[in-house]
Amino acid sequence: PDRAAAMNQSQVDAYEYSYYDYTDEAEPTTRPKEVILPCDPTVDDALFHTCVLSLSLVMVLILAVLCRKNKLCQGFTRGSSSVFSCRSPANFLDQSQNKGAAMAVFGLVFSKLATLTVAPDPLPFCKDTPAEIKGAAPLRTASSAGYMKVAAIFYYPLLFYPLLLCNTLQRKVGYVFGTLLSFTHLVVLLWQKVDCPRTPEIYKYYSLLASLPQLACLAFLCVQFLLLSIKGPKTEEVHLKQDLDSSYYSDYMKSLLKKRSSNSSSSPADEPSLAERILELPRSYIYLPDKVFRFPLKLAVSAFVAFLAIYHTALLLVVTVVPTLHIVRAGIDENIAFLLLSFGIVLSEDRMEVVQIVTFYTWLLEVCYLCAATLSCLVHLIMLMKSMILHRSNLKGLYKGDVYSLYNSQKTISPSKPGIVCWMGLTGYQAAVVSLGMAIQTVVFFICFLFLVFLVIVPVFYRRNLIVFEVVEQSWPAWVTLLLVTALQHVLAKFAFIKKEAGTRDLNNRDSLFLLTYLLFLINTVVGLIAAIWRMVITALYNILHLGRIDISLLHRSAEAYDPAFRYYTHSLKVEVSQSHPVMKAFCGLLLDLMVEGGPVGRRIRDAEEGSDLLKRRSGIQPNKATSRRRIRSRWQLLYTLVNNPSLLGSRKHFQTLQTSESILNGTPNRESKKEAAEAAAEAAEPAEAPSSQEKGEGDP
Prior knowledge:
Pfam families: RBP_receptor. By secondary structure, the protein is an all-alpha fold. The chain is 67% helix and 2% strand.
């Protein structure tokens, strides 16, 4: 009986819970994950947007009334200096506009769009409406959120358009309104970020970091509008000048027609040294402004938006990965040893040492990822500057009619339907390409850093797991053989198979050449395999490095038309060159100044002619025929330049109506096609003249 009672007691003890091993001095538990609650700023977002929309609408109506009223007082001639002149409210991308304000507004809109990708409430008016959506099906929730994001894409450009309007009209009233509006946006946004610096979106400080470009753009607009409103009358007179009155075009023509130095021949002593050649490589990637070249406004806006795209993409890449790695590294404990043991991985017999090793490797992962993101950001900044340099080079080439520098087939430098579409979407297209290219580039760089750190640096540092070096050690005879055979072929090709006689080169020892070709056939096959792998790696790395650039094609020259990014770029350049050619605008401005009565150029020429005639009459000197001949010759040269400049052909009316795509070759007129067109016109005119002559003959007595 005692034995049975003992067994029953043991069975009962097996299911009892005892707390004798828990002491009062228990170890502290791990800190739970920090939870960031949604924050409501003091300034309600919906109320602010309602007020600022009302204020913007009132400002737009006031400016519209002033423009409508003062339009009656606007001068009818181009030379009029009336202070009542008013510009079109949608002419904010014209070359005469202020680049800084347009770039800031476009950057403001893009920065707002970048934050919409992760924002729970895309529209400020819909914060309370998704309550019913949250209880709906997931598919319905996603579709409703998508609709709100689509609406937000159209809402925020309308919200910030009054800032563009205030700058475009170039009036002191508009500058005052722009100062008030931009200052309101800046103060409210800064107030909201001070009230709620941390948000639950992705990372607690993501919203604050993502709003820094918006704050910078708004601060720039505040300073810009304030300076323009203070110096209103003087600055307004400068900006009220038409585009053709700009001194840029005359300066460009002076630099273009300036006589070059005659001693252009270079001697061997003038050749750059090795150090200068090395320094020339980094200089070619640094954009330096040119005094006689003005960067087009649309391309400047595209470059600035691409810079902001680099910032926002880098921010997203960092905040989506690095905080997660911090959480993983903080949660590593002794259980990781059992987890690795289940996969057959034994790092050490001591579990604490396993924890230290895994923590160290996780830290290395974070370092590799940050290095990859930093390198990708630097590469894209360098490529952006290189793109700006190539933009300038391409524009100068197209201005001179060198179409082959950009295109591989005959093209007409004139606006077209695809060109207009590409010109409109160039800024957004470039920002999207830069963002996607930076993401892919970061992943590739991260993989490369992982291979470098975990297969080379760490094994060498700890003297174990030398897998790469063991593979190289086992295969070194094959590598040495390949190197020796390749070197042998190069040496024999230089000293045995080529002979020089009388300054010419020819083959030598043909029998030995043919025999060596046969003997090294298999070795060259292996070398070709290595070259093919190297070619694939180099091509992939080159395309990945240049994936964010749209000014070069990643395809072959004959397949450039299938590269959508490069196609967008080339079509937009055609529109840009056809509308902002400095030579065309310089000559048009000169001709209009001559035609307008009281124009500055016409007045100077008329005064000079009257003065010279009066001087000649008083002194009795006859007019110099050589001077008149030079004047006539220069005018004929000007006419010949305007007629035969390849990049200006698309601007001539008769060319647009009569010429075909076959009559030009990259902007250069085809003389044969012009003769054929003249012959066809003459043949068409002959039948029309024959009946008239017959009628005349019949009518004679």
